[in-house]
Every structure is written in C-alpha cells, then in structure tokens.
Amino acid sequence: MLFRGKGENGFTLIEILVAVTVLAIAVASIFRVFGGSLRTVTNAEGYARASVLAEAKMNEFLMTGAALQPGRESGIFPDNKDYRWESEVEEYFRETDTNSDEEAGINELGRIATYRLSVSVNWDEGSSLRTVDLATLKTVVEVE
Hints:
single chain, 33% strand
C-alpha cells in the first residue's frame, strides 16, 4: 500500500498499467467473439445460398417433361459463378426387387421405373471446399 500525502490525488503508474492491461484483455476477447460470429454468419449465408441453388436445380430436373436418363452432369450457375453443381441420375432398385412382371412394375400402361436423382452444389469458402447435397426419388411410367 502506498502512502500519499495530503492533497495528492490520482492514480499511480502501476495502477494505470494494470487497468490498461485488463481493458486490453477484455477488448481482445470481445473482438475474438465478434470475429467468430462474423465467420458463422458468412458460413450460414453460403450454405443458405447453396441450398436454394441446389433446390432450384433439383426442381429443374423434376419439372422437365423429358424422361430422366441415367448419367452425370455438371456446370456452373450463370448468376452465381462461385457455385458449381453436379447431378447424377441412376435407376433405383430395392434389394427385394425380383424379375417377376408384377414386382418389376410392368402393367398395361408400361414399365414403372424409379430413379434416384442427386444434386450437389460446391463452393470455395476461404481455403475449404463446402458442399450441399440433395437427393430424391422420382417414379415414372415408361411407355414401351
């Protein structure tokens, strides 16, 4: 404890240094929290945009009148050049499928086929590659 004479008001140099150090630690912690929050918001924005783009691409495939053809396609979104898409269509078979006409889905209208459609949207965020994947099944009647 330091003794001060009458009329000497104020803080010592040591007290000021301790106060500034505590303040610096508190401010650094607050900036670290805000920086983490900003990264989280940026990640969430990227995932939200990729989800909307993936859903739009999936709907584009599902709403077209053309028959689904097994295979892979890929491309870049014209309005969002940072995002790339890949799609895959494959015929979907259950493990319990057999070759009988009834179980294979062949009837008077034609062959009933089920396809698995998957869409992936990829983008670079900093040094890491991010991906959103969507998949669905679509059943169609193929007229023979």
